[in-house]
């Protein structure tokens, strides 16, 4: 058990089998499968452990994220146009097929992450150096696009969550780790120090647990290594914990049925008690 800055306690569990599914009901397992010569396929494991194909992105299409609203399954990705200076953001909705998401101007569109709170769905993506979100209030049947107007340079996002009744976007800017909370058209920005946010989940109380990394240089600044970080809300802002500098970076965060949040690399698990 390791105490981190008095913020939270995480226990490190070694020996995680790479690629093993996290605990939970089989039907909760959503993800991607790759086949030789074909793009990634959205998949779901059914209650008896069989793999069911949900969507098969077509040629020049790439799936990047997937969410279960409880009523529909929604995958998002991008359609590329070889030789042209543009791409299209796309959603695949179970029972509804492929949908081209709305765009407010042409360019290189790139959806990055998706989250849902019942029928309320939010996708965060990039348009060149700008950030856009797509919002749906009907489980993916219709969508609206809007710009995320944030004063920050070199801004990008890796994560979208529904936390404490608000949408939360997380990533980084030139100034370091960045969190944006609110709703389309009404965003508030928090720069939370060195590093970048790579993912996260919400705990039993609906509070965000974010993970990421920072670069640590040697004394002569001739080499560096990546050190893992975790952030949780507290004290009127965000508090940061250090998770050391493991060989393998944290890849994902999951909330278990008992409320524990698990951070996982291909080698290790960090568990936050519920």
From TrEMBL:
The keyword Signal applies. Keywords: Signal. Residues 1-19 form the signal peptide. This is Uncharacterized protein. It comes from Amycolatopsis speibonae. The lineage of its organism: Bacteria, Bacillati, Actinomycetota, Actinomycetes, Pseudonocardiales.
